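Milestone 3.1: sequence recovery, worked example.
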């Protein structure tokens, strides 16, 4: 008999568009997801947040901190003038220490406020769209804002890095995983020092080759899992709003179809995997509270 492994399967980008949000809700209701991260600066968050309420307690719902898509909820001096810049510009500013601590912290606070306004509680976790939460110049104001809200021990943070051995055992998305690991260096330690728990093990990076089928992507992502792993995914229904934001829309539909399929259920059974809403054991939550 295969022993069960607990894995957080987290759908990113709830609120990006109505189609993406509906796809995530369908999978969550079917028990094929265990967490989702919300982009609270996007108009779709306000429209679709009510659909999450029946799932409260069944899945983890977190803030998917966004600094690269759409518009900020308020002015962010030196970063966003009406609309967020693309990731490469945010990276340049982060790596050359040209992000304003106060400006970034204020936008983080606004996105947290927008989460709580429609959810009625703080997020279960915080991660970042395109992993921006781990960037230098972002991680520091993020930890400061979360600590200022007394959320240490109550909110876990997503560490998008993994061990080199685990990354090299996976063939798909290896280059992306190594790049993100480099950018995230020191994030886990900083989070722990500030009193926040993190996952241990991370996968789900999409391949550059969009023709790779979803079944291969998830079989690979569920390989070499860490002790408390998170696997990210990006399912969604394709609508015109999505086509205007993301050129790679078909991969979302393919992920949605596969995660809803009998084949994915069989993969979970074969690997002895059960989906859980948090990588943190209840005993560990009590120790950090």
């Amino acid at each position: 008999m295969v022993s069960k492994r607990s894995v957080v399967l987290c759908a990113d980008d709830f609120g990006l568009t109505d189609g993406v949000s509906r796809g995530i809700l369908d999978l969550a209701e079917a028990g094929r997801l265990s967490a989702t991260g919300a982009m609270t600066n996007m108009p779709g968050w306000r429209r679709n947040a009510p659909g999450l309420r029946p799932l409260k307690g069944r899945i983890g719902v977190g803030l998917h901190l966004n600094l690269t898509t759409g518009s900020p909820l308020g002015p962010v001096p030196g970063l966003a003038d009406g609309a967020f810049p693309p990731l490469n510009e945010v990276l340049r500013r982060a790596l050359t220490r040209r992000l304003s601590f106060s400006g970034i912290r204020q936008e983080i606070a606004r996105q947290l406020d927008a989460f709580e306004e429609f959810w009625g509680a703080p997020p279960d976790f915080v991660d970042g769209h395109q992993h921006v939460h781990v960037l230098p110049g972002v991680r520091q104001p993020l930890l400061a804002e979360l600590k200022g809200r007394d959320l240490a021990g109550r909110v876990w943070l997503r560490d998008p890095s993994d061990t080199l051995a685990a990354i090299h055992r996976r063939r798909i998305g290896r280059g992306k995983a190594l790049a993100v690991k480099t950018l995230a260096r020191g994030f886990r330690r900083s989070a722990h020092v500030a009193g926040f728990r993190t996952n241990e093990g991370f996968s789900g990076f999409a391949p550059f080759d969009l023709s790779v089928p979803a079944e291969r992507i998830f079989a690979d992502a569920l390989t070499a899992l860490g002790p408390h792993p998170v696997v990210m995914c990006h399912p969604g229904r394709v609508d015109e709003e999505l086509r205007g934001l993301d050129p790679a829309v078909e991969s979302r539909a393919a992920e949605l179809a596969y995660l809803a399929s009998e084949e994915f259920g069989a993969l979970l059974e074969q690997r002895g995997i059960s989906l859980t809403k948090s990588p943190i054991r209840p005993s560990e939550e009590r120790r950090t509270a």
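The first helix runs from residue 18 to 29. The two ends are 36 Å apart (CA to CA).
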